[in-house]
C-alpha cells in the first residue's frame, strides 16, 4: 500500500487508513474475552515490522499500548471505542513511518482532530467548521506532508471518541473528502471495482466502469459490500469523483462514481444478498412501524424490502440472520411482537438509473422470473432498482439467468454490416427475408442498425428498412474516414454484432477495439483471423467480455470445415492432416479453362460471379488460400509449422497496380496456356493444392492424375480431406461450392444463428 500512496499522493493529500489485517477483530475479542491476552497482536506486529520495516520505536509503542489495553480491560476502565480506535492509530503510525522512510514526508493524524459528528447517531453530516479549523492548522504547519488519518474513529457531540460502525474507514474517507472538497477520492479495496454481479457466483462478470450517484446510493441501500450505505451519504453533497480500485491492480481503471456521469437508463449491476430472514410485526399503525424502522437503523442494522400494509396493519422486512436476535429484542422492548416468518432467503436486485421507468426492463425481469419459484417482487421507493426475494437454494440459478439476460444478451440484437459488396448485399437480402423466422426460432429479434461501404454509411437506431439500402446509401453519410465508428461509439459496452464483409485491413485492425467494446464479430474478411498473434489477442479480449467471434466463411465459404474440425477436436479425435483445394475461384478457373476462351476472359466471369476476391490478384498470388491455411492451422494447432507457399502465377505478372495487371492480359493468357499445355501433355489436371500437417503448411500448383481424389470436382468446388485417428484409411471428405454470393452469405447467416444460440 505504501508504494501506491508514494506513487499517487502529493503533499497535502489525505490518506485514510483502516486497521491492519485482523486487528479490529482481535481487539474486539480481547474486550469480549474471546482471547485471554494481546499476545496475538504482538506477534502480528512483530512479523509486520520484520517484513515492512517500520521503526522499532513504533513497535515498542504498540507493545506498550497492548499492555495498557490489557490493564484497562482487566480493571474494566475502558470504553469500547477507545480500545478499538488503537487499530487505526497503529495503522496510521506505521504507514506514515514507512512513507517517510521511503522519502515521502508523511504525518500520522488522529481523525478526532478533524472529524466530529453533529448528531449522536452515525448519520451524516460531520461538523464542517471543526474540520476546517483543524485541517487549516495542519496545512499551514505541515504544508509539505501527506496526512495519514485514522479511519473509523471520530468525536461525538460530547467530544468522546466514537467508532463509525461497519465500513467506518470508507465512511471517514468520503466524509473527509467532502469536508475538504477534494477533487477526487479513491477507495482502495481488494476488488478491481464494482462488477455486474458477485464474481464468487458469476465467473468473469463485467466491470462496471461508472455509476451515477443515484445508482451508487441504490446499490449501497441494497447491501453492496464495496459501497456501504454510510460511505455514500457524504457523496450526496460531494462534487468530485470517487474511484473504487484494487490495491493489487492499481493501474486498472476501476469504477468511478460521480454526479457527472450521464445516466444510461440501463441495468448496471445485480446485487445479491443471501441468508436473510423475513420479520413481520402485526397490529401496529404506520407511525409505530416507522419508529421500529428508525430504531433498527440507529443500531446500524440493514433491513431490506421494508413494507407497511395499511389494510392489515403489519410491517414486514428482511434482515440478516445474525441480526435477528438484536432486531427482535429491540422490537419487543418497544412492546410489539415480531415473528420470524421465513429464513434462508436471498434478495436479488437490478440496479440502474431510472430502470423502473423502462417497461421493457420490467417485462424482461418478470419474464425471467417466470421459470423460478420466487417469494415476492419488490419495487423499492427509488426508481433505480427492482428486487425479488427467492429462497437461498435457487438464488444462484436465478442470478445467473438474470446476469446472462441483462449483460450478455439484448432482446433485440443490433447488427452492423460493414461492406456492401457481393456478400454484404446478399447478407442483407437474406436477413430481410428471414429476420422474422429467425427471431422466432431464436427467441430474440435482430435488427440491422447500420450498413457501410468504403464511401458512405447509413444508420438508424431503431433499425434500417432493408428493402432500399442502395437508395439510402446513395444519400448516406460520409464514410471515407470510417466515420461510422464515431456514430457507433454510443453502443460501446452493449451487445452488438459487427458483420465484416469487407476485404479491408483497416477494419481488421479494429477488431481488438470491437472486442473491447464488448461487440461480437462475424467475419468473412480473412485478414484478422489469419494473423495468429492478433487473432489470439482479439479472442482473449472477447473471452474476457464473453463475446463471440464467428468466422466460418473465412475458409470454405459456407462449407462446415471449421465446425467439423472443432467438433472432432472436442470429441477427442487427433487430426493428422488436412489437404485439398481451398480456392473457389481457382477451382472454377481450372475446371473451365480448356483453351477455348482466354484465361483473362474467364477471370472476368469469375469476378462477376463473386468467386474472386475484390482484387483477383489475391487469388492468383495465393494470398487468399494462404490466409485460409493459416486460419485452419490455428484451429488444428499447427500454426507454428514451417510454411512453404507457391503462387499460382509468376511474380512479374502481379507487379504494379490492378489496372496494369489487366493490361498484361496477353502475357497472363500465354502463362496459363503454357500450364494447360503441360497438364494436357501429362494427361493430367491443374490443381492448386493446400496441405496442412503439424510438420508443414504447404500450397502448390500441381498437375494431378485424373483418378486423384481432388480431380473430379464441380466447377468452384472446394474439397477438404481430413485424415485423423478416426478417419485414417478412409478420410473424411467435405466438398461443395467454396465461393459465391449465396453460399457465403448463407454461411454468414449460419454464423449469426450459432452466435445467437451462444455457440
Ligand atoms: N466471394 C466469396 O465467395 C467469399 C468472400 N469472402 C470474403 O468476403 C469479403 C467481401 O467480399 P466481396 O463481397 O466479394 O467483396 P466486394 O468488393 O464486393 O465488397 C467489399 C465491400 O467492402 C466495402 N469496404 C471496403 N472498405 C471498407 C471500410 N473501411 N468500411 C466499410 N466498408 C468497406 C467496399 O466498399 C465494398 O462495399 C472479402 O473479405 C472476401 O474475402 C469470404 C468467403 C467467400
Ligand atoms: N476468393 C475466394 C472466395 C472465398 O473465400 C476464393 O476464390 O475461394
How does this structure look, described?
- With 759 residues, this protein is of the alpha/beta class.
- The protein has four domains: 2-181, Acetylglutamate kinase-like (Carbamate kinase), CATH 3.40.1160; 269-409, VC0802-like; 411-554, Rossmann fold (3-Layer(aba) Sandwich), CATH 3.40.50.720; 561-739, Dihydrodipicolinate Reductase, domain 2 (2-Layer Sandwich).
- Helices cover 41% and strands 21% of the residues.
- It has 28 helices and 28 strands.
- The strands form six sheets. It has a seven-stranded mixed β-sheet with strand order 19-18-17-16-20-21-22.
- β11 (303-309) and β12 form a beta hairpin.
- It is elongated.
- The two termini are 43 Å apart.
- The structure holds 1,4-dihydronicotinamide adenine dinucleotide and ligand LTNE7NMQ.
- The site of 1,4-dihydronicotinamide adenine dinucleotide has 30 residues, from α14 and α17.
- Residues 418-424, 452-454, 482, 501-504, 506-507, 524-526, 553, 557, 584, 610-611, 613-614, 739-740, 744 line the site of 1,4-dihydronicotinamide adenine dinucleotide.
Amino acid at each position: 500500500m505504501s508504494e501506491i500512496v508514494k506513487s499517487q499522493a502529493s503533499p497535502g493529500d489525505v490518506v485514510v487508513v483502516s486497521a491492519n489485517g485482523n486487528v479490529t477483530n482481535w481487539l474486539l475479542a480481547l474486550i469480549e474475552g474471546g482471547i485471554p491476552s494481546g499476545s496475538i497482536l504482538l506477534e502480528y506486529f512483530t512479523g509486520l515490522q520484520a517484513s515492512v520495516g517500520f521503526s522499532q520505536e513504533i513497535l515498542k509503542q504498540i507493545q506498550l499500548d497492548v499492555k495498557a489495553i490489557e490493564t484497562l480491560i482487566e480493571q474494566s476502565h475502558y470504553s469500547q471505542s477507545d480500545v478499538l480506535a488503537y487499530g487505526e492509530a497503529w495503522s496510521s503510525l506505521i504507514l506514515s513511518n514507512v512513507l517517510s522512510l521511503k522519502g515521502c514526508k508523511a504525518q500520522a493524524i488522529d481523525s478526532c482532530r478533524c472529524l466530529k459528528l453533529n448528531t449522536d447517531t452515525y448519520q451524516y453530516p460531520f461538523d464542517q467548521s471543526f474540520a476546517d479549523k483543524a485541517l487549516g492548522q495542519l496545512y499551514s504547519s505541515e504544508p509539505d506532508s501527506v496526512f495519514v488519518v485514522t479511519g473509523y474513529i471520530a468525536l461525538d457531540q460530547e467530544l468522546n471518541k466514537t467508532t463509525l460502525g461497519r465500513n467506518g474507514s470508507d465512511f471517514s474517507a468520503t466524509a473527509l473528502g467532502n469536508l475538504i472538497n477534494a477533487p477526487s477520492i479513491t477507495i482502495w479495496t481488494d476488488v478491481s471495482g464494482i462488477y455486474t454481479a458477485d464474481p464468487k457466483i458469476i465467473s468473469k462478470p463485467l466491470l462496471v466502469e461508472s455509476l451515477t450517484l443515484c445508482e451508487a446510493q441504490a446499490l449501497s441501500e441494497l447491501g453492496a459490500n464495496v459501497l456501504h450505505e454510510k460511505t455514500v451519504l457524504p457523496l450526496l453533497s460531494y462534487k468530485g469523483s470517487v474511484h473504487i480500485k484494487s490495491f493489487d491492480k492499481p493501474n486498472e481503471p476501476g469504477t468511478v462514481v460521480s454526479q457527472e456521469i450521464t445516466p444510461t437508463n440501463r441495468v448496471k449491476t445485480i446485487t445479491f444478498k443471501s441468508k436473510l430472514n423475513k420479520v413481520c410485526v402485526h397490529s401496529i399503525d404506520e407511525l409505530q412501524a416507522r419508529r421500529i424502522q428508525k430504531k433498527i437503523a440507529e443500531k446500524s442494522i440493514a433491513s431490506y424490502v421494508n413494507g407497511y400494509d395499511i389494510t392489515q396493519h403489519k410491517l414486514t422486512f428482511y434482515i440478516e440472520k445474525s441480526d435477528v436476535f438484536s432486531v427482535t429484542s429491540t422490537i419487543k422492548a418497544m412492546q410489539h411482537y415480531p415473528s420470524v416468518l421465513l429464513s434462508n432467503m436471498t434478495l436479488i436486485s437490478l440496479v440502474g438509473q431510472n430502470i423502473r421507468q423502462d417497461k421493457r426492463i420490467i417485462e424482461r425481469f418478470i419474464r425471467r422470473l417466470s421459470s423460478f419459484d420466487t417469494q415476492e417482487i419488490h419495487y423499492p421507493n427509488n426508481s433505480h432498482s427492482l428486487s425479488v426475494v427467492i429462497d437461498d437454494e435457487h438464488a444462484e440459478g436465478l442470478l445467473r439467468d438474470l446476469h446472462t439476460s441483462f449483460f450478455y444478451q439484448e432482446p433485440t440484437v443490433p447488427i452492423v454490416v460493414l461492406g456492401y459488396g457481393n456478400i454484404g448485399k446478399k447478407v442483407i437480402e437474406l436477413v430481410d427475408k428471414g429476420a422474422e423466422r429467425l427471431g422466432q426460432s431464436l427467441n430474440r429479434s435482430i435488427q440491422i442498425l447500420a450498413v457501410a461501404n468504403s464511401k458512405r454509411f447509413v444508420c438508424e437506431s431503431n433499425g434500417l428498412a432493408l428493402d432500399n439500402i442502395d437508395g439510402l446509401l446513395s444519400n448516406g453519410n460520409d464514410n471515407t474516414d470510417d466515420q461510422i465508428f464515431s456514430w457507433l461509439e454510443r453502443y460501446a459496452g452493449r451487445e452488438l454484432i459487427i458483420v465484416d464483409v469487407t476485404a479491408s485491413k483497416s477494419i481488421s485492425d479494429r477488431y481488438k477495439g470491437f472486442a473491447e467494446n464488448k461487440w461480437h464479430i462475424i467475419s468473412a474478411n480473412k485478414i484478422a483471423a489469419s494473423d495468429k498473434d492478433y487473432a489470439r489477442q482479439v479472442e482473449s479480449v472477447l473471452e474476457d467480455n464473453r463475446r463471440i467471434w464467428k468466422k466460418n466463411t473465412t475458409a470454405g465459404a459456407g462449407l462446415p470445415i471449421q465446425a467439423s474440425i472443432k467438433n472432432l477436436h472436442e470429441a477427442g479425435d487427433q487430426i493428422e492432416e488436412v489437404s485439398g483445394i481451398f480456392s473457389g475461384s481457382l477451382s472454377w478457373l481450372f475446371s473451365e479453362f480448356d483453351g477455348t476462351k482466354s484465361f483473362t476472359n474467364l477471370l472476368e466471369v469469375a469476378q462477376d460471379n463473386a468467386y474472386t476476391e475484390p482484387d483477383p490478384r489475391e487469388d492468383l498470388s495465393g494470398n487468399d488460400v494462404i490466409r485460409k491455411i493459416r486460419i485452419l492451422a490455428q484451429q488444428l494447432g499447427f500454426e507454428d509449422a514451417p510454411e512453404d507457399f507457391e503462387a499460382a502465377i509468376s511474380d512479374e505478372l502481379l507487379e504494379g497496380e490492378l489496372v496494369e495487371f489487366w493490361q498484361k492480359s496477353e502475357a497472363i493468357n500465354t502463362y496459363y496456356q503454357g500450364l494447360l499445355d503441360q497438364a494436357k501433355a501429362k494427361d493430367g489436371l491443374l490443381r492448386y493444392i493446400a496441405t496442412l500437417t503439424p510438420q508443414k503448411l504447404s500450397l502448390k500448383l500441381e498437375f494431378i492424375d485424373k483418378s486423384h481424389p481432388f480431380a473430379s470436382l464441380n466447377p468452384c468446388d472446394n474439397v477438404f480431406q481430413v485424415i485423423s485417428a478416426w478417419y485414417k484409411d478412409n478420410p473424411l471428405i467435405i466438398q461443395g461450392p467454396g465461393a459465391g454470393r449465396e453460399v457465403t452469405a448463407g454461411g454468414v447467416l449460419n454464423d449469426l444463428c450459432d452466435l445467437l444460440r451462444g455457440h
